[in-house]
Amino acid sequence: MEKDYKRTIKTPSKKKTISKINLAIRISIWLSLGISCALMMFCGAAYMSDSKIFQVRAIEIKGNAHIEENEVLTLLDIEEGINILGWDMDAARKRLLKHPWVKDISISRNFVPASVNLRIEEHVPTATLVLKDSPYLISEEGHVFASAPHDNYGLMIQASGYEPMGNGGDLNDILKDAINAVTVVEAKGLKVKDLIIESGGMMNIRLDRGITLVILGEMTPVKVDMALKTLEEIKPVSGTIMDLTCEDKIVLKNRGYHGS
């Protein structure tokens, strides 16, 4: 028996054809939308970068007593007329905080109208430290923060011969104790002339009456009261050294120690 084998010709269905056409249309639409959005964003960015709306109109700086305004503007790296959108505020903050006089800052910006507001908190110098014949400024916290323009700002602390010895402590810790010691002494009515830090951290607080109080570490109100009682009862002469390194007694010496 003979069979006729005829070649079967497949013809695409109408549904598949329509589906492919729809897919191509959707892809074209999304591509068009993507390109349009990219162009709009590019044009918007170009507009904002050139627009006068975002050009800085005002820069307000407050709190700078020792730092020149031109120096602050240099560290901010911005000026009026510059587009504020391209300004790196965080980088400006880091530059300002590295300045020796700057203790802390508060910085903000407005976009419309474009402006920058800066408030600086400076260190408050309370004493001058002379270390190896060079003067430095000391803050109220007892930290050395800048070279001194002169050597007579506030309390004079001489440490030309200071050398750390054993557990003598870090100089910053000793300076903190020194500032606190002077505060405690003057709170009791005694006037401090100057202070000398010796090797190892021994402190000599020289009073204006020619008496020297010697301490090591923290000065307490109890120690100052002991010194006051001794001053009232014994009335030591100028040049007397009152050693307060012991907790419960005072050792008196009478010699030309450090002069008067």
Can you describe this structure?
With 260 residues, the protein is an alpha/beta fold. The protein folds into three domains: 36 residues; 70 residues, membrane protein fhac (Ubiquitin-like (UB roll), Roll); 130 residues, Rossmann fold. It is 33% helix and 27% strand. The strands form two sheets. It has a nine-stranded mixed beta sheet, with helices on one face. A three-stranded mixed beta sheet has the order 1-3-2, covered by helices on one side. Strand 10, helix 5 and strand 11 form a beta-alpha-beta unit. The C terminus is likely disordered.
Please, what is the CATH homologous superfamily of the largest domain? Answer: Cell division protein FtsQ/DivIB
Number of domains: 3
The level 1 CATH classification of the largest domain is: Alpha Beta
Mean pLDDT: 83
Task: Describe the structure concisely for a colleague.
With 260 residues, the protein is of the alpha/beta class. The protein contains five helices and twelve strands.
Which features does this protein show?
single chain; 260 residues; alpha/beta; Ubiquitin-like (UB roll); Rossmann fold; 3 domains; nine-stranded mixed β-sheet; three-stranded mixed β-sheet; 12 strands; 33% helix; disordered C terminus
Helix-strand layout with pairing:
Blueprint: H1 14-50, E1 58-62, H2 69-76, H3 89-97, E2 102-111, E3 114-122, E4 125-131, E5 134-139, E6 144-147, E7 155-158, H4 171-187, E8 192-197, E9 202-207, E10 212-216, H5 221-234, E11 240-243, E12 251-254
Parallel strand pairs: 1-3, 4-7, 7-8, 10-11
Antiparallel strand pairs: 2-3, 4-5, 5-6, 8-9, 9-10, 11-12
